[in-house]
Amino acid sequence: MVSVDLKRDRVLLRWGTQKYEWCIEPRYWRNPTFGVAFLLILPLFFFSYPHLLTMLTTANLLAALAIPLSLQILGTARVNFGPQFYLGIGGYTAALLNLSFGWNPFFTLLGTIFVCGSVALMLSPITWIARGLYFSLITLILPLAFLDLTYQFGDIFRGEVGLFGMSPLFDLGRVKWNYLSYYYLSLFLMLLYLLGAHKITKSRFGVSLAAINENENVARMMGINVSFYKVIYYVVPSILTGIVGWFIVHTFRSFAGVTYLPLEFMLKVLFIVIIGGRASVFGAVPGAYAVSIIEEALRSFGHISHWVFPLVLVAMIYLLPRGEGLWGLYKKRHPRDYYPKMHVRRE
Amino acid sequence: MIEIKNVGISFGGLRALDDVSFSVGKNEVVGLIGPNGAGKTTMMNIICGLYQPSDGSIHFEGTQITGMTSDKICKLGVSRTYQIPQPFYAMTALASVVTSVLNGKKRTNMSLGDAGLEASYYLEFVGLFSKRDELASNLNLYELRMLELARALATTPKLLLLDEAMAGLNPVESERALEMIWSAQEQFGITILWIEHVMKIIMKAAQRIVVLQYGKKIAEGPPEQIVKDPHIIEAYLGGKH
After folding, report:
1. Considering the domain boundaries, does residue A83 fall inside one?
2. Residues A2 and A37 occupy one common structural domain
3. CA–CA distance, A219 with A213 (Å, rounded to integer)
4. CA distance B39 to chain A (A)
5. Exposure of B203 by Cβ count < 10 A (0-12 exposed, 13-18 middle, 19+ buried)?
6. Which of A175, B110, B126, B142 could pair with B150 as two cysteines, CB 3.0-4.6 Å apart?
């Protein structure tokens, strides 16, 4: 009933009338399953090194920040220089709701989604009125202004110290197990974002998104309601970014604006987007891991990373001038080849 | 089909269009000609909703479209091409046309796959099916113009606005493009408002010509009458001639 057939380049599995095949030729090993399996196995090697597990968890969370940002860059055709603004809003909302009102993580999640969505919706008209440098400047200033607020209202946000002692998502009783579980949770969150973003870019909405990214006016003339799309692609990634803040609050159990809102953190996220591949949702994963590993490796050298990251960036731009990044290098195709090829069967 | 009444627009101190009125009937091909800077493309941009006129109104099939956004006007059935092709350079030819299919006239239950099939029909119609997977940046000028035509047709327009569709094409390509436009008009039953500088082509293609100069309409009539009009000869060649 079940037969397995090993061909030169593929494995065929027949089960009744069903036929499944997997390509095993190394040059086609681009199946995301391999990547996911690798990421699932990876922490088991670092089980005894909590700081490395934390590094991997941070890499997942950075990727989870970069994925919505890539989607936002595509959908609004503008580069948001302050994605961490919504991370701050999400984090502080969750922390304050938890500490002040004793809401459990599920309700703080709902609160985070609501607050981030409302703020993003209120600010979304900037995607219509501000272009290029103006949009970048506005988005750059937002997190810095929010950081200032956290100092101004120190009795609420606790300024530099931040908020701590929020209730955890769950507690397995042992520290190592908790680190491992947070890694898997962050991986799950990142993969969820990745899958969602991939589905969107490959759907009918993704094609319209690509058109907006290419030329707004022409897209509008082709019947695309550009203003509506821009609002959607500003608000939804903002909510997704806020959810990462919520996750940080309930896993690391402390949240300080001074860690996430300054320019250094924003630069890290933008480095991920550029190193991984400009506006490529998959590029966020290798980008985030590369940045986290470089950062961890250079931690003992102090502030050297401030020099190393720009150098890496210049090297990337010099070596991969089309902005395809690590993902483009891996795919070896044009990075913005939006639509799957259509083949005509000649049988 | 479309009625333009006393339309005027100013850019700062410049009066780009002043009190222009004309109409285009169903299945008609109307040429819009005039010297450089006469306001032809501005008129097209106003019809498409890119600019809002400072006075006058435009009615499309009885609906006032002045003040509407471009996407709504497109959904009503107005589509256009550009003087300088404006393709989506980083998208494949098929993807560009798919965008039009998905966003033009509302089609119920249109999936991405269905849209791909329909888009491939339009690409085949303009002779670009073999280039469907090419990025627009790899296409030549004639192919880009054809891609624009396919993209415009894919929104299923009732009125097609062609902005210098022959610019930069050699005589053979121009003839091919003209054939294509005629056959599009025949097959899809569309009305065409056509801006053109190549007089030979527009005189052959249009049933009626509207002439603009310095933002004002100076003549309107069948091509054979227009070529003999002394005002138009003066506008194009100067008073001496």
Report:
1. yes
2. no
3. 9
4. 19
5. middle
6. B126
Q: How many domains, chain A?
A: 2
Closest chain B CA to residue A209: B99
- H/E stretch holding A67: helix A50-76
Is A71 a member of any domain? yes
- Domain span at residue B211? 2-77+157-237
Residues of B in contact with A230 (CB under 8 A): none
pLDDT reported for residue B19: 85
**Average pLDDT estimate for B124-128:** 89
- For the domain that residue B25 is a member of, what is the CATH number? 3.40.50.300
pLDDT at A65: 92
The one-letter code for the residue type at B124 is E
Instruction: Using CB atoms, pick whichever of A336, A338, A342 lies closest to residue B132.
Output: A342
Angle, to 10 degrees, between the axis of helix A175-201 and the axis of helix A204-214?
A: 80
Query: Per the structure block, which two tokens stand in for A129?
Result: 């009125």
The position carrying tokens 């005039």 is B34
Per-residue pLDDT tens digits for B171-199: 888 888 888 888 888 888 899 898 888 78
Per residue in B34-52, pLDDT (tens digit) is: 888 888 888 889 998 888 8
Single out the residue of A256, A269, A338, A340 nearest to residue A309, CA to CA.
Answer: A269
- Listed in order, strand segments (DSSP E) in B125-215 are 159-163, 191-195, 208-213
List chain A residues with pLDDT less than 70.
25-31, 278-279, 303-305, 322-323, 331-347
Give me the residue from A203, A210, A226 closest to B95, CB to CB: A210
User: Which contiguous run of DSSP H or E holds residue A241?
Assistant: helix A226-251
Please check whether residues A17 and A85 belong to one and the same domain. Answer: no
Q: Are residues A220 and A191 in the same domain?
A: yes
Whether B232 shows a pLDDT value over 60: the answer reads yes
Are A233 and A50 in contact, with CB atoms under 8 Å apart?
no
Note the residue count of chain A: 347
Residue of chain A whose alpha carbon sits nearest to that of B116: A342
| Predicted pLDDT at A26 | 63
The DSSP result for A95-121, as a single string, is: HHHHHHH---HHHHHHHHHHHHHHHHH
Cα A111 from Cα A116, distance rounded (Å): 8
Residue of B nearest to A339 (CA): B95
pTM, to two decimals: 0.84
Do the Cβ atoms of A224 and B99 come within 8 Å? Answer: yes
A222, B90: Cβ pair inside 8 Å?
no
CATH at A78: 1.10.3470
Same domain, A23 and A159: no
Domain range spanning residue A24?
Answer: 1-29
Q: Which residues in chain A are contacts of B104 at CB distance < 8 A?
A: 222-223
A76 and A18 in a common domain: no
Percent of chain B with pLDDT over 90: 11
pLDDT at B150: 92
